[in-house]
Amino acid sequence: MIAGNTNPLLYDALTGLPNRMLLEERISYEIEVAQRNTTSLALIHIDPFPFSDINSTLGFEVGDQLLIQCAERLSSVVRKVDTAAHLTGDEFALLLPDAEQEGVLNVCDKIIKGFEEPFEVEAESLFLGLNMGISIYPIHCSSASEMIRGAMVAANAAKKNKETTFIYHGSMAKRASDNLRIFGALRKAIHEGGLDLVYQPQVDVQSGELTGVEALSRWNDLHISPGRFIPVAEATGLIRDLTRWMIKECLFQAAVWKKAGYQFPLSMNVSVRDLLSPNLTDDICQWLEEYNLADYPLTIEVTESSVMEHSHQAIGALNRLRQKGMQVSIDDFGTGYSSLAYLKDLPANELKIDQSFIGGLAGQPGNQRLVKAVIALAHEFGLKVVAEGVERSEELDLLSRYGCDIAQGYYLSEPLAGEELVKWYKLRDGKTKNIQ
Asked: Name one Pfam family in it (predicted).
């Protein structure tokens, strides 16, 4: 703890740093100084990660010790006129009076270097990443509250774009406002039945037989795509409610299919936040029993990037899923930052090649070589390969030549409601080889 700060109203009890109240007072004062002297000042919002994972796996005591060490490292890079503050949870801020953009970026570089060394806590060597957002007076704001909000919005943009540092700009405010609106409407939709599920068939490339379906969430009332509302759910923590709603709805639909004499293997997408939840596997097993689906073929899909971002914890969670009899699929393969060498360490049954490599495959020799190599290597590790986004016959033909196992995309079928999937299956006798 940083000693000498005792006022509980103005200083954080854990770290000893100024709290948000004192930070706002100092920002307001420095804005007045900057107005008189025609100078500028900057605020850096600092969000170290992944604190939530550390708290859930190692405990809050370790997390608290880590926060104290973060405060000490941040305090070591500031001038006497600067203010390092602990806002809330795992969020910090640095106020830099009389600072231009170049100088602020230099401070950010010092912070990054200061966080490169591991944090030693209770015999654990822990590494933290950083998302930082910068707001500068008078360019981006005119008050303390605007400055804090702008820096926070910029830090969130850094997180979303997987960058370390972002400088605030005006369009971020509109984006943040839109996200807030989507968050409120999505929370209501989850709890009041405003979402639907559809199921996209996955077919054997050689035989055309249906091998399974992937469940996809849709928000039809507001016509907001999953690519828009799912990132909002992930950023706000609403993804937990969304995932659990999706899983229970999927299992209910599976029970309906089973009662009608159909057992379509079912793939469901799970976020990394839910993947690392210690209760997820037990919850799924409990719901399987409730719906009399104990032996139902179930696959959990997780994105490559999320697994690699939390590789140690994620691999342990995936192993628990497999021990319970569930299959594991690595989604969006090729879009993350892992290498093919990671395949040998992943407790997966299949990987899905991202649609960005499949679309227009016939006219892209580079993607052809990559897809062919991924299929061959995956097979060496005993993994099945699913190609996403198949929209043309020539793409399916190439995948067949390369030995791809399973294909999915609009050329084979659009996503279908549960009842429509049964009709589709019966009409084609389970095969889609010559759908068009």
From this structure: EAL
Amino acid at 266: L
Of 50, 121, 131, residue with least CA distance to 313: 50
One DSSP character per residue, 79-144 reads -TT-EEEEEETTEEEEEEES--HHHHHHHHHHHHHHTTSPEEETTEEE--EEEEEEEEETTT-SSH
What is the pLDDT at residue 280? 82
Per DSSP, the chain holds a count of helices (H) and strands (E) of 16, 15
**Contact of 371 with 387, CB cutoff 8 Å:** yes
Q: In this structure, are residues 404 and 387 in contact, taking their beta carbons and an 8 Å threshold?
A: yes
Q: Residues 371-395: pLDDT tens digits?
A: 999 899 899 989 999 999 999 999 9
Side-chain-side CA neighbours of 245 within 13 Å: the count stands at 21
Contact criterion met (CB below 8 Å) for 333 and 297: no
Quick one: which of 113, 145, 301, 99 has its CA closest to 216? 301
Give which of 381, 379, 433 is closest to 402, Cα–Cα. Answer: 379
Q: Are 127 and 18 contacting, i.e. CB atoms less than 8 angstroms apart?
A: no
Which residue matches tokens 């010790």?
65
Identity of the residue numbered 291:
Y
CA nearest 171: which of 157, 192, 186, 191? 157
- DSSP type of residue 164: S
Query: pLDDT under 50 in the chain at which residues?
Result: 1, 3, 337, 433-436
- Report how far residue 88's alpha carbon sits from residue 26's, in angstroms, rounded to the nearest whole number: 17
Domains and CATH numbers, the chain: 20-168 (3.30.70.270), 181-428 (3.20.20.450)
Where are any strands of DSSP class E within 7-52?
41-49
Angle at 175 between CA 172 and CA 178, to 5 degrees: 155
Lookup result for tokens 């689906």: 293
Q: Where are the alpha helices (DSSP H) in 161-225?
A: 170-191
H/E segment holding residue 202? strand 196-204
User: Contacts by 375-383 with C-beta closer than 8 Å and gap 24+?
Assistant: 375/402, 375/403, 375/404, 376/402, 376/403, 377/340, 377/343, 378/343, 378/350, 378/351, 379/403, 381/343, 381/344, 383/343, 383/348, 383/349, 383/350, 383/351
In terms of Cα–Cα distance, which of 431, 352, 432, 365 is closest to 398?
365
Interval 82-100: pLDDT, tens: 999 999 889 999 999 998 8
Does residue 372 sit in helix, strand or coil? helix
